[in-house]
Amino acid sequence: MPYKQKISRKAKIRRIAYALFFGIIFAVIGTIVYLIVEPGGGPRGVTRAEREVLSPQQREALMEESREAEGRFREAVSDDGPPDEEAIDALREAYDKHRRAVVNNPHASVADQQRLDRLREDVVEYEGAFLAGRMDALREEAETRRAEGEYDEAIGLLEEVREIQERINREMRGSPHASTAAISSLNRDVLNWRAEPIIEFSRRSEQRAREAAAGGRWGEALEYFTEARDAQARINEEFQRTPFVNRSRLNALAEEISTLRTQEMRALIAERREAGASLFAAERYEEAADHFVEAAELQREVNREFPGSRFASSELVRELERAQQTALSGELADSLLDAGEALDASLRAGNGNAALDHLDTTLRWSERLQSEFPRSDFRDENRDLRLGYLDSIRDRVPGILDDVLENLLPVPGHPDIRLHAYETTQDLYRRVMNRNPSRNPGDMLPVDSLNWEEAREFCRRLSWVLAREVRL
After folding, report:
1. At what angle do helices 314-328 and 285-305 cross, to 10 degrees?
2. Does pLDDT of 37 surpass 60?
3. Shortest CA distance to 94 belongs to which of 55, 127, 53, 130?
4. Spatial contact of 179 and 165, defined as CB atoms under 8 Å apart
């Protein structure tokens, strides 16, 4: 194909493309213009639904009817007081008919448009004020119904107020009574008023529940607390933008319900615990332990099933377990106490060898108690400390007994008190304390360079050896 022929075909394609492009642009612009102002003239902002074909006679009839309605309105306004509903209806009729005639008149005059604007201003002023007064009256009646507890009627009236406010906002934008904030406030009030009877019911139910609980009517109290909780849960879920949402109260009501449901179990726990204590006092140790075990298991169930209850307590479980171990260790503890008494008797008698035999027996019982029942109340740290000390100086115990007991003298007038004949020697102090702080050493010399606490500790340890009180 020749080169010039190719260029000619490309030029034709470009011309066709340009024509299509500009044709589409003009079509879009024409459509927009048609939507804003249809052919035939008339004011802007007229909807398609308002368009109709009217003859000149029909338009003139509408104008005449509009003027007659306006006359009725002006006559009413000239009287004292604000216009009534009939006068407002006449003004609305005048405006609507005049607008219908103007928007469908392609040759409407400037005077016709000016009259339409004036009528609209009157509608905004007078009908807006009338509707505002109507809203005030409805609001007052709604408040009265609300105070009387007639919430459905009150809410219906408040919704009517909201509809009127929406109409003012939509049709009378220049009115001082138009307000989007008022709509928000009304929406909030409607929501709050819907929630008020529910929260009041919840509070009444809670009060009745507490009165029932105070009277010991546990089943009735549980029913009322459940009603109160369910109502508060509904508020929290469905009315989240109201001031009645209260998650803390919901949790507190749930805790009350848990507490009431644990009443029977608490009674059983107290019964088992009291019976265990009685059996323990009667030295029926195994039976007592069984009751403490049952009580602990019931408390574990309370903790597991009702963790939010104020009666859920891990500390009580530990206390019951300790009571169980104490009961189970009762016989062993009795053997330990018997061995300890025999040890003390031998020490007080100055029988060192017998005391060592009893010391071995006492240590065996004590070690068993520590290993088998570490949480028993029969455990005694002071006793364990003393036994450990005696065991650590066991080879010296007979000699200490001999040296001290043979030098005790009676105190006139005090038959229960014995006084050592000599000052405490360094030898005795060393055997009791495993050290000698004296600056002037000598086994038979009095111990020196002691402070008050060291002297008290010496007396305490010697008391352990002698099984009787020793003091300065």
Report:
1. 170
2. no
3. 127
4. yes
